[in-house]
Amino acid sequence: MLSRSILSRRLLRQTAALPTTATASFSTAALRLPTTTTFSSSTRPLLRPAPASPLLRRLLSDQTRQAIDKAVSSAPIVLFMKGTPETPQCGFSRASIQILGLQGVDPDKFAAFNVLEDAELRQGIKEYSDWPTIPQLYIDKEFVGGCDIIVSMHQNGELAKLLDEKKVLVKGEEAEAEAAEAKKE
Amino acid sequence: MASPTPVEDTIREKITANLKPTSLEIHNDSHLHAHHKAMEGSTSRETHFRLIITSDEFRSKMQPARHRLVYSLLKDEMAKEGGIHALQLRTLTPEEAEKRKQAEEGA
């Protein structure tokens, strides 16, 4: 935390120094240059803008791969989706979120990443998982499947079993205790 | 005359040739999704498909591997601008299809 604030302060000074040493035309370049994005990627998983060429985008850069590695290991249950859990932007993402909710996944053990917020993530995750569609579910860093697989595993009981084994569900007793606590207050 | 359903035709051709399915259902659900934001500007009537494939090729493969197999066959159609936007898959072996049928009849 400390090192990061030092870095960002140094960075601020650097960018602030730019216009004085260069001509005015430099300032627009400074604005466009993603000097800060490398650092903000430590707070958000992915912020680097996608490369302009669609050809370049087809190759998964080390940087993107690392950022996705980090996203995948950010929680035991990770869903890459369109939109947010509160407001999904696609029916398949919505169905997947609803199922995880029905199963009783503990919100503390869950992370969702909105691919619509980040063109590089949107493209990169497809290559990373060797899977061309969104949503994508990871459990303990392992790819589980897309919406159809989530639905069928939900229906045949495999998902409940897997989530229970991974201990990522809100426990019945805890939930009851919480409810009792809420009643008292 | 050009086929009114070129994408569906390609799907049928490729799946049939490569997976030799004992049963293949292709449902075009595109009209259900025509007003979605993601479909803005799209004029294609073949964007959303739902496939139910029964094939021996799926034997001893887990579901993700089966789906990847189908995706790989339709890679070009999915990558193309204005091509297939969504592909729902149910991939079964003949035995699984039989079991499912019995379960449905029993219910």
UniProtKB/TrEMBL annotation, chain A:
Give an example GO biological process. [2Fe-2S] cluster assembly
Q: Which Gene3D superfamilies match?
A: Glutaredoxin (3.40.30.10)
What UniProt keywords apply to this chain's record, in alphabetical order?
Answer: 2Fe-2S, Iron, Iron-sulfur, Metal-binding, Redox-active center
Iron-sulfur among the record's keywords?
A: yes
PROSITE patterns xrefs? GLUTAREDOXIN_2
What GO CC annotations are associated with the protein? mitochondrial matrix
InterPro entries on file: Glutaredoxin, GRX_PICOT-like, Monothiol_GRX-rel, Thioredoxin-like_sf
Q: Ranges for the Glutaredoxin domain? A: 77-144
Q: Does the keyword Iron-sulfur apply?
A: yes
What GO molecular function annotation could you give as one example from this UniProt entry?
A: disulfide oxidoreductase activity
PANTHER family, per database record: GLUTAREDOXIN FAMILY MEMBER, GLUTAREDOXIN-RELATED PROTEIN 5, MITOCHONDRIAL
The protein's name is: Monothiol glutaredoxin-5, mitochondrial
The organism named in the record is Lasiosphaeria hispida
From TrEMBL, chain B:
Some GO term, biological process aspect, for this entry: which one? [4Fe-4S] cluster assembly
Pfam families the record matches:
BolA
One Gene Ontology CC term in the entry: mitochondrial matrix
| Superkingdom of this protein's organism | Eukaryota
Q: Which InterPro entries match?
A: BolA (IPR002634), BolA-like_sf (IPR036065)
UniProt cross-references to SUPFAM superfamilies, sorted A to Z: BolA-like
List the Gene3D superfamilies: BolA-like
Concerning its family, UniProt says: Belongs to the BolA/IbaG family.
Protein name stated in the entry? Bola protein
Annotated organism of origin: Lasiosphaeria hispida
